[in-house]
Task: inverse folding
């Protein structure tokens, strides 16, 4: 069921939600959290589709905030709020409100969202694109216990990682980090099977993919060994090679689906390591709302401490060039955010 409201208020939206629930015969609210999606019109459909699929595991009230910036000074001065309320089959297992903000109200989105939050329930804010540099101090981000960004959607992902490290606040997380959960689990399980000491690591993956940098930083932070970052044609992460005093341990995934785990003295094993969709990533993030200390530690390790001479490393060097010295320009990445494949 869909209810369209033009030039409305938060109070009228709440009444429409109650009306919609009664109309479909489910007056009780059985949702566990509020998910606020801050996006633009272009990316709203994909983000909402992912949120609806994730709601099968986490029934939630989803608020989609779309800020419509007008070019006309007259239109910018006129504040207006349009809303689309969805309940029942049109909203997954929860309920959805699409908010379109015009004029001066664009700068006060938090005043619109606040009355629509579920009472006594956690709040998660997700920016699929154009995330603020400091999510915790963003007016909408300050309402949330968990703030989800995606550095892959940034024009210069490695510089974005450095900015995220400087502004990190407990509760921040990144879908580029979520994408490497299966890799981290597989590598940890492989190291549990041997008693060897790792001496060096090489992480191979496509250029300008922040998941590769995050995995390399995690390994360097945990193993306290040199880690080299090298580039490949992809897709995404393609290989991790750990050199140890008992021989190499290699996790290789050339096709983005099936990987091979090779450990010295053991037969090679095929393991499923499929690249996941955004809905699976969001569902994973909603399973835990406490601070991710492992992510924080890996992020603060620093991209500049990794070995290798990839364009990503050059981009990072450009970001940290001393004042007065002109750094070499980093190559620009023009892949649209909505085409970013899951790691």
Result:
């Amino acid at each position: 069921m869909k209810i369209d409201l033009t030039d409305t208020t938060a109070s009228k939206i709440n009444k429409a939600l109650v009306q919609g629930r009664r109309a479909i015969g489910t007056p009780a609210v059985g949702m566990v959290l509020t998910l606020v999606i801050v996006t633009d019109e272009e990316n709203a459909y994909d983000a909402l589709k992912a949120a609806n699929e994730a709601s099968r595991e986490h029934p939630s009230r989803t608020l989609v905030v779309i800020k419509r910036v007008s070019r006309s000074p007259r239109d910018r001065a006129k504040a207006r709020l349009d809303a689309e309320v969805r309940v029942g089959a049109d909203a997954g297992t929860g309920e959805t409100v699409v908010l379109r903000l015009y004029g001066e109200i664009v700068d006060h989105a938090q005043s619109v969202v606040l009355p629509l939050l579920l009472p006594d329930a956690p709040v998660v804010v997700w920016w699929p694109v154009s995330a603020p540099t400091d999510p915790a101090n963003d007016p909408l981000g300050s309402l949330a216990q968990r703030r989800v960004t995606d550095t892959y959607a940034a024009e210069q992902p490695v510089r974005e990682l450095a900015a995220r490290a400087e502004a990190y606040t407990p509760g921040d997380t990144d879908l580029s980090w979520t994408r490497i959960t299966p890799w981290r689990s597989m590598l940890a399980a492989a190291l549990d099977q041997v008693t060897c000491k790792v001496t060096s690591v090489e992480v191979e993956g496509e250029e300008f993919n922040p998941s590769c940098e995050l995995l390399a930083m995690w390994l360097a932070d945990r193993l306290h060994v040199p880690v080299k970052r090298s580039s490949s044609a992809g897709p995404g992460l393609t290989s991790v090679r750990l050199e140890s005093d008992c021989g190499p341990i290699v996790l290789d995934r050339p096709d983005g689906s099936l990987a091979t785990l090779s450990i010295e003295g053991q037969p090679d094993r095929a393991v499923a390591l499929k690249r996941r969709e955004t809905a699976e990533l969001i569902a994973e993030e909603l399973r835990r709302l406490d601070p991710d200390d492992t992510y924080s530690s890996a992020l603060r390790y620093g991209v500049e401490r990794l070995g290798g001479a990839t364009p990503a490393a050059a981009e990072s060097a450009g970001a940290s060039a001393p004042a007065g010295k002109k750094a070499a320009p980093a190559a620009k990445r023009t892949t649209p955010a909505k085409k970013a494949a899951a790691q």
